[in-house]
Amino acid sequence: MKVLVIGQGGREHALAWKLAQSESVSQVFCAPGNAGTQSEATNVAINVSDIPRMVSFAKEESIRLAVVGPEVPLVEGMADALREAGVAVFGPSKAAAELEGSKSFAKQMMWKANVPTAKSETFFNFEAAEAYLEDREEQPLVIKADGLAAGKGVILCDTKQEALDAIKSLMRIKEFGDAGSTIIIEEKLIGQEVSILAIVSGSTIIPLETSQDHKAAHDGDKGPNTGGMGAYSPAPLVTETMMDEIIEKILVPMVNVMKIEDRAFNGILYAGLMITNQGPKVLEFNVRFGDPEAQPVLMRLKTDLGELLLAAAEERLESIDPLEWDERPTVCVVMASEGYPGDYEKGKVIRGLDEAAQLSDTKVFHAGTTMQEGQVVTDGGRVLGVTAIGETIGEAKLKAYQAVKCIRWDGAWCRKDISDKAR
């Protein structure tokens, strides 16, 4: 079958790479793709939000399965339009994608489903949020933009002044545009974060292997939040008993409540969790593969990804055999542009990719790259996801950083401690 992967980041490169290995897949297209996806797929110059052109292309090429990578086209209704055109789609409807598109909506669903999460309040104007903070005693809080902000609309605040500055940044200065018109103020949960990704279709839920992201920009989880500076899989923190609890108390109730709300879920349900002293609590829900979590998780998957995603899209997921996994752990290190997650320059020539590609058990996934005059250049804040597999977490980390050392461009940087929490 022909498959269309929609998106242009590291997640989409990983999906295209894994789908190209599937016996069930004859050809992979990636729209718009990047400098890396063209090695595994045929890039198509269509913007991720151009729904009419995407539908036309899918029909012209007789696409059997469309896999929508990023959250923005899902929230805008890409999956609905493709389904109406007769294309099988792995990705939730616009109604179901609101679970990521609006954090306040997600909170409402969690309360209805009795899913454990942080206590929070939602505010629609600056004055009300300011008054709420002024009346509270000093305590660590988290301020979140309600809408989509490329994984960066979450501000951790240890003092009241930091919280006041955060709501001003979101609601007055509009740092993330309309995404911050509504905000959520919630208690700051203490613990370690883990990412739980599950393939959902109808009432069938198949959890994928666990992973742990690194959101903060700098070593030791310091600095501003980013879209993710690296990840590893599995996350030893999540025991078998804990996974059973997560399925029972979080995944199943959310899938059920979405069905009750006439927003039946199809695609990836991603639960970002904090493992607290009281057990797992939900920080956020996403409705697509995580980026960078997709890279280390998909590197470990042995099951035919094309067959798996098509079964989910066609609502026959219950017929799929248990997933097969490589038991070895994987580590993904994100290499970023100077200035990220703030302002950064594009167009820097990337050297050493061929050298890194020669290393065993390693794959360099492109995130923010493009081709310019025959050379691979930077085209985003997060540029590459250097991913390796090893007998141990330590070995996988060593291999990933050996590949990182091969690659260079003006201003390239990365965290040096990805996966250290797993030891």
UniProtKB/TrEMBL annotation:
PANTHER family: PHOSPHORIBOSYLAMINE--GLYCINE LIGASE (PTHR43472), PHOSPHORIBOSYLAMINE--GLYCINE LIGASE, CHLOROPLASTIC (PTHR43472:SF1). Residues 107-314 form the ATP-grasp domain. Pathway: Purine metabolism; IMP biosynthesis via de novo pathway; N(1)-(5-phospho-D-ribosyl)glycinamide from 5-phospho-alpha-D-ribose 1-diphosphate: step 2/2. It comes from Gimesia aquarii. GO terms for molecular function: ATP binding; metal ion binding; phosphoribosylamine-glycine ligase activity. Belongs to the GARS family. The gene is purD. Keywords: ATP-binding, Ligase, Manganese, Metal-binding, Nucleotide-binding, Purine biosynthesis. InterPro entries: ATP-grasp (IPR011761), ATP_grasp_subdomain_1 (IPR013815), PreATP-grasp_dom_sf (IPR016185), PRibGlycinamid_synth_ATP-grasp (IPR020561), PRibGlycinamide_synth (IPR000115), PRibGlycinamide_synth_C-dom (IPR020560), PRibGlycinamide_synth_C_sf (IPR037123), PRibGlycinamide_synth_CS (IPR020559). SMART domains: GARS_A, GARS_C. GO terms for biological process: 'de novo' IMP biosynthetic process; purine nucleobase biosynthetic process. Its cofactor is Mg(2+); Mn(2+). The keyword Manganese applies. This is Phosphoribosylamine--glycine ligase.
